[in-house]
Write a structure and sequence with these properties.
The N and C termini lie far apart (67 Å). Helix 2 runs antiparallel to helix 3, helix 5 crosses helix 9 and helix 7 crosses helix 9. The chain has 343 residues and is α+β, with helices and mostly antiparallel strands. It is built from 9 helices and 12 strands. Bound molecules: dinuclear copper ion. Dinuclear copper ion binds next to loops.
Length: 343
Amino acid sequence: MAWVRERHMRYPQRNWILLFFGLSLAACARQGTPSTLQPAGPAATEIARLSWSFFGLGTAIYLAVIAFLVYALFRSRRRTSDDENYPHQKDATNVVILGGVLMPAVTLVTVFGLTLYTFRQVAPPAAETAGQTIQVIGHQWWWEVRYPDTTTVTANEIHIPAGEPVRLQLETEDVVHSFWVPELHGKLDMIPNQVNYLWIQADQPGQYRGLCAEFCGTQHAKMAFLVIAHPPDGFAEWLVHESEPAAAITDPLAQEGETLFMSLACARCHAVRGTAATGQLGPDLTHFGSRQTLAAATLANTPENLAQWLLDPDHAKPGSLMPATHLSEEQLDALVTYLESLQ
Ligand code: CUA
């Protein structure tokens, strides 16, 4: 029976190992998963405060109910034999009025008041103080981002100035999506034939992950984006650079890639400002090389991932409208070099 002993010895070790990996994975998830409980802007701070108030209130009520339950258990045990004629009927009525009517009324009014207060706090600022407006358009399954009054069009990255409110004009090109950056604000739906507005503010420069919060098709889970908050000067610089057309290509391999891009189907769906590519179906690629991710924050924007994506988009995102291409190794190399050079 040596194996039985061995198993008994091994089990506690295995549990420790599982616990260790579980906690490590939880830590990984934590890094990539934005939390409403770690707010990074005024609106999200108010929402987090409301969540904690509800949690505190719920905990207090739970503890009070448990305390009454424990009290009732011991009390009834003491009085079972001598209490046959219910002489405490009046007490019982009072308990019902207090616990069944007054307490719930006070609790609900408190919750309602706190919610109204939060609504007020996260309301849009007055029109006079309106800062940068950014148009965000949902597509299956990516985000088009436009800066009105400039030529800037980008995708899956929303650059904003830190420390000031930014107005988002939310629309959709197809089905209902929902815009959500948990660290900055609550969710807001993007509804066909309707424009919704949301104000966000990031207190500090940094990156905040956003996601689609309404089921919108098979790749709903792979419809994410980044909000990148710059110091105000950095944002102005970024906007000027993004408004410019693509720089002229000088590298011979990249030039070869550009020729391919224009002759293949690419240019019919994607625009590269300053070139013959003016397609409007897919993301604008004018400064594609400076973006951090591919396919709506599904993959890191690296030459390897881009090559894989061009050959077989369905591998990373089944059902994506991006068609697979049949390129030789040389052609793929040239195309990847061209796209990554679009800084
Ligand atoms: Cu878009 Cu879910």
